[in-house]
UniProtKB/TrEMBL annotation:
The keyword Hydrolase applies. Coiled coil: none annotated. SUPFAM superfamilies: Ribonuclease H-like. InterPro entries: Ribonucl_H, RNaseH-like_sf, RNaseH_sf. The keyword ATP-binding does not apply. This is Exonuclease. It comes from the Bacteria. Residues 2-168 form the Exonuclease domain. Keywords: Exonuclease, Hydrolase, Nuclease. It holds the Pfam family RNase_T. One of its GO terms (molecular function) is exonuclease activity. The lineage of its organism: Bacteria, Pseudomonadati, Myxococcota, Myxococcia, Myxococcales.
Length: 173
């Protein structure tokens, strides 16, 4: 199984009405060396300035980003090359990140190479420590910057820590 940690930045709360601005992905394995980063041109005339501000880009900058279909095609190819076995989408906030990745894959490619399910890192950690009031964020080494590669790497580091120090059973390709 290939665990693919994903982080999304968007200019609003839902796909379709708003746009995924950029995303990062990392194959969860020792070394965390296989990463993907995509920046996507907006698909909508709507945006929430506070949401866009989090990404660190201006609206004008995003209008020069790559066509979404091209980015999703490149991500699909990267997944084929780097996550050959069953792919498991995992993120810190999969309710948010999954909805954008799933919508964009289906809208632009007609399918989602992750299938129909995802995993929430925070919920997984709560189960490991048996306490719904705990958070995994202290396990990150890479600072959370809202650059989706940094954020995906930090979350992948936390998952590896859960495996190495807490006995979480996960396997690599």
């Amino acid at each position: 199984m290939s665990y693919v940690m994903v982080d999304v930045e968007a200019d609003g709360p839902i796909p379709g009405d708003y746009s995924m601005i950029c995303f990062g992905a990392v194959i969860v394995e020792p070394g965390l060396s296989r990463t993907f980063y995509g920046r996507l041109r907006p698909i909508s005339d709507q945006w929430v300035s506070e949401a866009l501000h989090i990404s660190g880009f201006s609206r004008e900058e995003t209008l020069a980003f790559d066509e979404p279909k091209q980015v999703m095609t490149e991500f699909d190819q990267w997944l084929k090359e780097n996550a050959r076995n069953r792919r498991l989408f995992i993120s810190d906030n999969n309710g948010f990140d999954w909805q954008f990745i799933n919508w964009y894959f289906h809208h632009f490619l007609g399918r989602n190479p992750f299938g129909y399910s995802s995993l929430n890192l925070g919920s997984l950690y709560k189960g490991v420590v048996k306490d719904t009031f705990q958070t995994f964020k202290h396990l990150r080494r890479t600072r959370h910057t809202h650059n989706p590669i940094d954020d995906a790497l930090g979350n992948a580091e936390a998952l590896l820590e859960m495996k190495e120090r807490m006995g979480l059973v996960i396997s690599f390709e």
